[in-house]
Amino acid sequence: MAELSIYAKSEPTFSNDYVPPVAVSVAADFLPAHLIAEQPPELPRVSEREVVKHYTRLSQRNFAIDTGFYPLGSCTMKYNPKVNDWAASLPGFANIHPYQPEASVQGALQLMWELGQALSEITGLAEASLQPAAGAHGELTGILMIWAYHQAQGQGQQRRVVLVPDSAHGTNPATATMAGYAAKEVRSNAQGLVDLDHLRELLDDSVAALMLTNPNTVGLFEENIQEIAQLVHGAGGLLYYDGANLNAIAGIARPGDMGFDVVHLNLHKTFSTPHGGGGPGCGPVVANAKLAEFLPKPRVIQQGDRYSLDYNCPKSIGRIKGFYGNFGVMVRAYTYITTLGANGLRQSSEDAILNANYLRHLLADRYTPSHADKPCMHEFVVSAQKQKQAGTSAAGIAKRLLDYGFHSPTMYWPAIVPEALMIEPTETETPTTLRYFADALIKIDQEIAQEPDFVNHAPHNLINGRVDEAKAARHPQLTWPD
After folding, report:
1. Distance between CA atoms of 281 and 117, rounded to whole angstroms?
2. Staple partner for 378: which of 82, 251, 327, 352, CB 3.0–4.6 Å?
């Protein structure tokens, strides 16, 4: 049965007085008169019982990490340990306010400082900022730091190009463009790695940086990373690390040792904090000694046995978020890192690699792996080109997986693989779960051979079937109709 909207369930005889009044000064104390509504918003009049039922039912229709396998490639949808939530809910962390005096939040400042130290050690770099609110926000922060560095060197107007591999995350060229750079694409070679010859052709005194993910998005480690770093640095550019795939190497290898100058990290990927449905998030940036002075401010510093916020950072790019970052997310990541320790982080990465190779092996006879001449890292890409020739597509396979109780992998990306399905099992899934998932994909392949249209019209077993995606994209309904 279709779920009516909360507004459609509104009844004029119901009361919504259980919503507590806002305990702040009225808006008239802060806002210009022309921005203040004359009437309060028309909130639905629904009983508390109906509100709970409505949103609980909606939540149960969603796929979630706590209820099933979520193999979105390059998203690292790993389990979020409940001890992280316990730590973040401790009153001394949950009930503090950013305007409190530093003397009253020493524990929070110590945690932020120690988390920054841990991330610096894990990445092999000098100093961290926890201020960015998400991975893409951290990307922008890192690229702005690169811009500030070149400005300080007197080359800001000259170096206006950022190089991005053709297998890169889509946020990379978007970030470069937002920062005012021209993004140029670096080709991959037949092995799925950066084409060094093409990189050499592109490198000149106009290049500010190369943005790189290692392992890359086809799940392969860039074996020539040190030569890449030498080439970029030799041309006067900087090397930027997109930390989306750090879950494959944490505790094993460090970006700083590879030659990267600045990295952004996704705490919701490698360090098990919730993805959050859009927020809150935390995308720390970690820089080497050359770039550290450009990190956002304020920065948490240690002075003897006390911790404080340092605003005296003359070369900083400035504040890039209100206050100091999303603190609850930091607590969760700190708990994860301290729970596992160095050996546990390495074990997690090794298990993620093992799971990915095991699952790729289970599927190899039915789905064509890209670049299968070597082991993958934490994720892998298969091509559904064979299934497309039989009458369906990667999208059809992904939709049919929903009927089997699995969230779909990432589809049609990276674009260098036709009909791509990018699969990342993470280290927190059992071999039994991986076998169930492989069995589902094998059964779907059999269905395609017998009746491809059945797969093309999936899902069949969910409340909502196949939607008109083109109409939804071109004619979205974003407001409640009058």
Report:
1. 19
2. 352
